[in-house]
Amino acid sequence: MKVSILGCGWLGLPLAKKLIEQGHVVRGSTTRAEKLSELRQAGIEPLWLQLSPEPKGIGWDYLLDTEVLVVNIPPRLAHTGATFHPAQIEHLATLLKNSSVQRVIYVSSTSVYADDNRTAVEDDVITPEQAAAPALVEAERIIQEVGKTWLVLRCGGLMGYERIPAKYVSGKKNLTTGHLPVNYLHRDDAIGIIETFLSSPNEAWNQTYNVVSPQHPTRREVYLGSCEPFGYIPPTFEDDASAPYKLISSERLQTHLPYSFLYPNPLDFYYAL
């Protein structure tokens, strides 16, 4: 099938490569003109496009002449404010309504859930008012109402390859969150899950899914486990029993999708410098 990926970054580029291996025709966008040659060499039909928040660049009609659109653009809420990302998606929705796109996958985040010391399921956050990140849920709503078959994938913390947990805490002292559970997702599983949805019947679509590894070891276990293999300095811990947490359930995903996680336990994630 024809698949377009809006945002060929850390997840989108390897996703595109995997889909090409499977025989799909892939068009992909980047906001960096210097990256176009890299996309072309990977077999992707490349386009330089931006949502800032209005569409910029030449080739939007070509990108949207596709069966499936994967929307994988970082919201950057801390840098752009709460209204920018929903405005991006609103402009995109206007283009989508008049396009031949049949199905849309929106890559969202488990950051929509607050740290409220419990297990979070999809129906806990349906409206922006219920969310810790209202702008993301507003963007989800826009995608759901665009008139296409849709998926919202609330992905956990994407890890794997050079994204090594220990890298971000090497040598730090007295971390107070070591006892909290992680809600991680290996990049290979994110790609495998999207690929599996593409071949799934529409009955599995028009749903919001939490996409996280089924197991939730503590941050202490994950940090320390990824220190020694790569030479990072182990952090020290001073756990604070009052530190809030969340544990993200992926039960709905595991019920609806015939997919077996490559890395169900974050302690077993594959990393490479």
TrEMBL record:
Query: GO cellular component terms?
Result: cytoplasm
InterPro entries registered for this protein in UniProt: NAD(P)-bd_dom (IPR016040), NAD(P)-bd_dom_sf (IPR036291), NAD(P)-dependent_oxidoreduct (IPR051783)
Annotated Pfam families:
NAD_binding_10
Report domain NAD(P)-binding positions: 9-166
GO terms for molecular function, please? aldehyde dehydrogenase (NAD+) activity
Lineage, top-rank taxon, reads: Bacteria
Query: What PANTHER family does the entry give?
Result: NAD(P)-BINDING DOMAIN-CONTAINING PROTEIN-RELATED, PROTEIN YEEZ
Protein's UniProt name: Nucleoside-diphosphate-sugar epimerase
